[in-house]
Design goal:
Oligomer: single chain
Number of domains: 2
Structural class: alpha+beta
Strand order of the largest sheet: 2-3-8-5-7-6
Number of helices: 13
Distance between the termini: 35 Å
Order of helices and strands: HHEHEEHEHEHEEEHEHEHHHHH
Number of strands: 10
Shape: elongated
Largest sheet: 6 strands, mixed, barrel
Helix content: 55-70%
Length: 415
């Protein structure tokens, strides 16, 4: 065992010396592997970053939340919009039926969205904001974080108090030099008191569900100001932990059909949506991107591998005389074989390491410029090491075998 370790150590030192003595050739041979590893890691990191953003967005929407709406989530391709256009919107009476009868629900809330609204305070205004009118339960369903002030009390929600909670961007625009809480803003043609400000979230890469440009008001207030059925009402149901989403969805469909008095032969005139519909579509897209990136990277690495194999053949040719002397002095085939294999693997590992460092550098730069956290995980490091080692073995095995089988007399004569 000690002898094997010693041989590997000597082989490693020989390989390191050979790479150091031919620096220009070494650097040129690294390019292919570096580009290939960089391509694979970049694609996988991009996919992991997008997936992380999606999961974060799903957590904001609610991973255990069902939504009763007029339209099913999805679109594109063969989306049969004509089947849904004449459906009724979820009414407040539907919400009350679900809230009173659904046993698998932790919380049931009702919400509408009034887009393209303008909020004013003095000479300052914030335009194109989304006014979201909610029942009291939406606070826990959406996991809203109020960092300044408070949320509506249950009494304020029921009574339709002229109160508003502002997203961080709206608050910054309207109140650049003062605290918003306690001030009055004009919204939807009414004076409303700011009672809270939400935590700043930033926009998402894939799904923008940020509350930064949203103003929350009680639903009871909104229904007195607008025809709420014209603003995409939605019933949100947070499912109890002990029940699966499928169980809750089955009960929900039964309650909605009963509330709308649909006979058995008629299909549902509403949609039950959940975030798995989004993730399923995007998982398919991510799979295609991963596969494409993997094949592009593999072809790049193979080109680099051929370059390294060519360099190793040249290295064997240059060192034929030295190999003959080593064998004449008693060096075994294993020593010669390991010497060239280690040199090939070292080349690939260095190229892979450089590719990984470039990806880390680009990720840090992109993160600093965009504010998005780019994920380069530990599995990328492991993948780089494994791929580089495999390519090194494949590229170096034939030249190494050729060197190990050289006749010592003929090898010494070659110079």
């Amino acid at each position: 065992m000690f002898l094997i370790v010693t041989l590997i150590k000597e082989s490693f030192l020989f390989a390191l010396s050979a790479l150091r003595d031919n620096r220009t050739r070494t650097l040129l041979s690294l390019l292919g592997v570096t580009i290939g590893i960089m391509t694979i890691i970049s694609v996988f990191s991009a996919v992991d970053t997008l997936r992380n953003n999606l999961e974060e967005s799903v957590r904001k929407i609610g991973s255990r939340t069902l939504y009763v709406e007029k339209w099913p989530w999805g679109g594109g391709g063969e989306y049969p919009w004509w089947k849904y256009v004449n459906r009724p919107e979820p009414k407040y009476a539907d919400f009350e039926a679900v809230k009173n009868r659904m046993t698998t629900a932790e919380e049931v809330g009702y919400t509408i969205n009034i887009p393209n609204s303008t909020a004013k305070y003095g000479n300052n205004s914030a335009s194109n904001i989304n006014v979201t009118a909610v029942t009291h339960e939406m606070y826990s369903i959406r996991n809203l974080e109020v960092v300044d002030g408070r949320y509506f009390t249950e009494q304020e929600s029921r009574a339709g108090s002229h109160s508003v909670i502002l997203g961080a961007t709206i608050a910054e625009g309207l109140f650049p030099n003062t605290t918003p809480v306690g001030k009055y803003v004009t919204l939807l043609g009414r004076k409303m008191q700011v009672i809270g400000v939400l935590k700043k979230e930033g926009s998402g890469v894939l799904i923008n569900v940020s509350n930064d440009e949203v103003a929350y008001i009680p639903f009871t207030l909104a229904r007195n100001l607008v025809n709420y059925e014209h603003y995409g009402p939605s019933i949100a149901i947070e499912v109890k932990r002990q029940y699966s989403l499928d169980e809750a969805e089955s009960e929900l469909i039964g309650i909605m059909r009963s509330a709308r008095r649909l006979p058995p032969q008629r299909e549902d005139n509403f949609s039950v949506n959940q975030t798995t519909l989004i993730t399923a579509q995007l998982d398919q897209m991510f799979g295609i991107i991963n596969l494409a990136g993997f094949f592009i990277g593999i072809f790049s690495i193979l080109v680099g591998g051929f370059g390294i194999a060519n360099i190793m053949f040249v290295s064997v040719k240059e060192r034929t005389n030295l190999i003959g002397i080593q064998k004449a002095l008693g060096a075994k085939q294993f020593f010669i074989l390991s010497q060239f294999l280690i040199e090939s693997i070292l080349l690939c590992l260095i190229g892979g390491g450089i590719g990984l460092l470039i990806v880390y550098g680009l990720a840090a730069l992109a993160g600093a410029l965009t504010g998005v956290v780019i994920i380069v995980s530990l599995k990328m490091v492991i993948l780089t090491t494994v791929l580089s080692t495999l390519i090194g073995l494949i590229a170096g095995i034939v030249p190494a075998i050729q060197a190990a089988k050289l006749d010592p007399v003929e090898a010494i004569r070659s110079k």
